[in-house]
Each structure stands twice: as C-alpha cells, then as structure tokens.
Amino acid sequence: MDLKRMAHLVALADERNFGRAAERVHLSQPAFSRSVQAAEAELRMQLFDRGNLEVSCTSAGKFVVERARKLLFDNRCLERDVSLYRERLIGDIAFGVGPFPAVTLLPELMIELRTRYPGINSRVEVNNWKYLAEHLRDEDLDFFVADIRDIRDIRRDADLTISSAGQQHGHFYVRAGHPLLRQQTLAPSAMLPYGLASVRLPLKVRSQLRRLLGLNVADHLPIALECDDVHLLKRVAQSGDTVLASTDAAVADEVREGKLFALSLRGVAPLYADMGIVSLKGRSFSPMAAFAVAFLQEIAANKK
C-alpha cells in the first residue's frame, strides 16, 4: 500500500465523513471512495463501517490507521531531514588546521559557518600535520588542511586523498626599527645572531634553510623558537629582535599596521607553504564538510 492511500485512510478516520475527507486530501469524493475501497480490497479487510451519519473505524481499521499514522509521521520526518541535510543544516563537523591556515583561513571559515549554519556544532584541532594525520586516520576528523610537503615527500599518503589549497608565499619578518632594516639587502646569514622563530618546518624547507644560512646538511638548524602558535611567534618578533619566518598572509595585518617588515635577502628563492586539504581515501564528505572544504579552497585562492 502506498503512502498516499495510507493518508486517505487517516483522513477518513479523522473526518468520519467521505466528503470532508476527500476535500482534505484534494480529491473528488468518487475518487476518494475508490481509493478507500482499493485499500480494503488490498488488505482483504473491512476498515470502516459506513453509517448513515458518519463513518467509523472497524477494529481492523483502528489497527491499520494507527500504524498508517506512524508511517506517515516517519515519512514526514524523513522528508524534513533530507531537506535539511541537502541544505547543509544537519551534520556536525570536526576538522584540523595547521599553524598557518589556523591564522589565515580558519577565522573566515568559522565566521561563515557560525553565520550561515548556527545550528551545527564544530570542533577544530589546531596542530602540526603529524598529529592531524593520526587523528584523521582514527576517524576523529573529517579532514585537515596543512602544509602537505612532508606527507608526500616521506610517502605517508597511500591511504589519503590530498587536494591542493594553493601556495602561501612567505618571507622573513622583523619589527619596526630592527637593526637589520638599516641595510637594503642582506646575506641570509646576517639573521643568525638575532635568532629565528618559526613553526615546525617541513623537512624540505629545513634543508633549504640550511643552504641559505651556509650550513652543512648535518649541522643543527639554529631556530631559537619553534612553536606552532603563530600568534605567539608574532608577539615575540614584535617585542624584540627575533626574526620571524612566516607566510605573508599570516602577518598581513601587522605589515599593514607597520609593526612587521619583510627583510630583503640576497639569493633567496621564493619561500612558500604548500597548502593541501587531506582526507581519508574512499571516505565521502558529509554535506557540511563538503561546504567547509569548498569554502576553504575559495578563500585559500585569495591568500597566496
């Protein structure tokens, strides 16, 4: 028996009159009567007693109508939930971000999520790619966005799907009035006496930095402060002579306000963070996660 016919039975049970019930479901009375008769024939039971003044359910009718009501209610709930799901109003989200995207991409995404979908719950892990990959593989995260070079370079991506979120270019930055700003161009080694501050760098970047500073492969990389909290790194650089290695997008506000300045270094190839969105291979995104990923890719394109 289809749901429309069940709705006709419920309408007749409620209205106790064929004319009123037919009007309620927007059918002519003859068509409505045929539908009820077809239901009784299909079930091989008489569901209604037809009196002179009103219609009443038989015992079998009460049994069927009670269950029809539940099925119709469940169907309405399903239709509502599917509609909400399709519009991305159902489904919590848990994802991770690396240090730089936490500063450059996360604020805009969270403002958009809270504004557009206030009914969802969001959980965000800010950490390095190793931590995030571990929690992704534990299915604790829907996805994460971070610098993806180490994931690819050390062959840890066999079970992962990685989509590019663009490159974020970077420089070495110092506070206003820093001694290094007195020179128009510098040798990279001139930064060493002041100490470098950086997030945990990918292996390829660490090798590149060693070459820039004139160090051997086996030499310890002299990073005075290594921390994945970019806000802390910026505070330290603004408060003293420490040199900050950062993406340009992460310090855009400080540069605009004249608090940090990029050093002009000789012989330095363009520096960048290679951002990517990482998820488990073969696992589809929920609508909310799909929205977040699409929004991240959109804003990442403007943060190069």
Helix/strand class: alpha/beta
The helix count comes to: 12
Which assembly state applies to the chains in this document? single chain
Reported for the largest beta sheet, the result is: 9 strands, mixed
What percent strand?
A: 15-25%
Question: What level of helicity do the residues show?
Answer: 40-55%
User: How many E strands?
Assistant: 11
Low-confidence stretches: none
On the 0 to 100 scale, the average pLDDT is 89
Any idea what the radius of gyration is?
Answer: 32 Å
- Helix-strand pattern: HHHEEHEHHEHEHEEHEHEHEEH
User: How would you describe the shape?
Assistant: rod-shaped
Distance between the termini: 59 Å
Q: Would you kindly provide a written description of the structure presented here, covering whatever features stand out?
A:
- The chain is of the alpha/beta class.
- The chain is about 45% helix and about 20% strand.
- The chain contains 12 helices and 11 strands.
- Strands 3, 4, 5, 6, 7, 8, 9, 10 and 11 form a 9-stranded mixed β-sheet that branches. It has a two-stranded antiparallel sheet with strand order 1-2.
- The model has no long low-confidence stretch (mean pLDDT about 90).
